[in-house]
Amino acid sequence: MNSSPLLAARALSAGYGDFQALFSVDFDVFAGEVVALIGANGAGKSTMLKSFVGLVPIRAGTVTFDGRDISKMPAHALASQGLALVPEGRRLFRGMTVEDNLRVAADRARRLPAGVPAWTLERLYDLFPILGERRGQAVEKLSGGQQQMVAIGRALITQPKLLLCDEISLGLAPRVIGEIYAMLPVIQQSGTAILLVEQDVTLASRSSNRICCLLEGRIVLSGRSSEISREAIAKAYFGVG
Ligand code: ATP
């Protein structure tokens, strides 16, 4: 693991109007790792992700990505820096085909150094073969799981160094969640780091190298997923002890 983080939040505070949702959060993601961010409803997980990509303004503190201060960078500029969000609710372009959803996103792609393998349409269809089969269909004709695959593909085709996934399992059947989560190691092995916001603590723990727990806008637990006990996670999650 590199000694300097790929993404680093320092003393990050953010909120909405009079409401403060994040309180002086310090948080890192290192190149190539999978980090799971857990916490109860309203803990601030989505706010944190959105503050990284310029969708919620930062009130205090800084966010650096790949050594560059991105605290004030507008959301549309971040894809070309190598930061991609799979938003909660997927937010696909309705009325457009699977392939057009992917192609539109490719226009915002980061320029890759020579020799770095790119996430092409072909490679995405290898990752999720059903998308290749359905490439000509309008996205609203797809199942929820297939739509989630398009949302992930749309983020990957921007060639991210870090993929931010906001509750990608939400509302999906366990079998479909299993199919999607099975692809995360493939994405990780391609060199893309992943930050997962996940409600299912067991899934989060099993799928990540490190886990962080937010409670009412503060990080209350952080460590290697393989070393943190379920009891410690449960206590942090509910703010007990
Ligand atoms: P969930 O799992 O329910 O999505 P979360 O941990 O992602 O929860 P956030 O969505 O980040 O939590 O919300 C953190 C706090 O900010 C909550 O109290 C929420 O009500 C509040 N909040 C979120 N979005 C807004 C908004 N647009 N305007 C006002 N308050 C908001």
Short key terms for the protein model shown above:
alpha/beta, four-stranded antiparallel β-sheet, 10 helices, 10 strands, globular, binds adenosine-5'-triphosphate, AAA+_ATPase, nucleotide-binding, P-loop_NTPase, ATP-binding
Question: How are the elements arranged and paired?
Answer:
Layout: E1 7-16, E2 19-29, E3 34-38, H1 45-52, E4 58-65, E5 68-69, H2 75-78, E6 83-86, H3 98-106, H4 121-127, H5 129-133, H6 144-156, E7 162-166, H7 174-182, H8 184-189, E8 193-197, H9 201-207, E9 210-215, E10 218-224, H10 230-238
Parallel strand pairs: 3-8, 3-9, 6-7, 7-8
Antiparallel strand pairs: 1-2, 1-4, 4-5, 9-10
The protein binds adenosine-5'-triphosphate.
